[in-house]
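Table S2 (continued). Query chain:
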Amino acid sequence: MSNIIKSNSKGSLIVISGPSGAGKDSICKELENYNNNFWLSISCTTRKPRNGEKDSVDYYFINKNEFEKRIKQGEFLEYAKYNNFYYGTPKSKINEHLNNGIDVILIVEVQGALKIKHKVPEAIFIFIMPPTMKDLIKRLKKRGTETNSNIIERFKKAYKEINEISKYNYVVVNDELDKATKKVNAIIEAQKCRVDRIEELYLNNEEEQIHEFLIDNKIFENKNINL
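Corresponding output:
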C-alpha cells in the first residue's frame, strides 16, 4: 500500500540571522552532528579574513570592485553593506541543492534576510539571540579581532537588529550551544510536516475499498466494536 500523502521533496531554504557574536556560525557547524541533509551556503564579503578563516570555506573573500561587478551582473540573491563591508549571497548552486532535496542554510545579516523574505516568502527565517547583551559583549571581546570602536558599533547594530525579530518565524536563544542547535534542527524537521508541502492525497484504490467494506458491513454501526 502506498503512502496516503505525497509531500514536496524539494529542500527548504533556511535563513539564519542574529547579532554578531550570537553564535550563528557555531550553531550551523554543530548542526552537522544532527543533520546531514543540508548545505551551508558560502557568502561573499569584502572584509579581510579573521584568524583561522579560509577562502572558499568560511567566505569567498573578494575586493570591492569585484563585488560591485557581480552586483551589476545580478549574481546575488541578496547583498548588504555592514560596517563598511559588502556581504552577499551568490545565487549559484542554491537552486541546484534545493531541487535535489537538500536543505540550504543561509547565514545573512538582517538587511539581506528581509530582501530574501520579499523574494522567497516561503523560506524559514530563524533569529539567533544571545542570552543577554552582556554575554554578547563578552563574546565579541573574546574573539580578539575587534577593536573597542568596532565592538561599540556592533553593539549598537545589535539593538537595531533585535528590533526586527517580529519579521522572523522563529527565535532561538543561544545560551547553550548544543541545546540551541537541537532547537534549530527541530525547527527544520518540523517544517517538512507543513500542510502546504503536501502535493497529493492518495485516498483511492485500496483506501476506498477498505472504506466501502466498512460501510457495506455496517462496522461503524456496531457499538460493541473496540477501535
